[in-house]
Amino acid sequence: MTRCRNRLWKPESKRRRNRRAAGAGDIIIRNPDGSVRQVIDPRWTAKPKSNKRTQRDEERDTEQYREWRSAVLLRDKGTCILCGEIKNIHAHHIERWADNPERRYDVKNGVAICISCHEKHHGPYMTPFPVKITAMLKEYVERRNG
Hints:
By secondary structure, this protein is of the alpha+beta class. Helices cover 37% and strands 13% of the residues.
């Protein structure tokens, strides 16, 4: 990197860069070390909610899905397997619902996790879980099911 000829030039501090990165009302996603990973302007990402039920909503409103969810929560005793929380528990698909229609109702493809762990690992856009955590969840299910 070449040095700027201006004697007053100084590299921008991390704090100033983080402050400049986000405007008022922006959603800031931070890395574990506190640095800014992503800035989202809610005016561009907000989509109006539709009153239409999607095919996914219809499929999750079936008796088969309710039985799968109950079986997963019963097996894991209604506690989050990541942090041990007992409130606000979700039944999470290890292999994604959209990617594996044949394993949607397989109890071995589900684990109980709390809403905060679910949101923390999926992120704001419901991205896939990190590979390391997915492997840990699969190992847990294998041990539980024998």
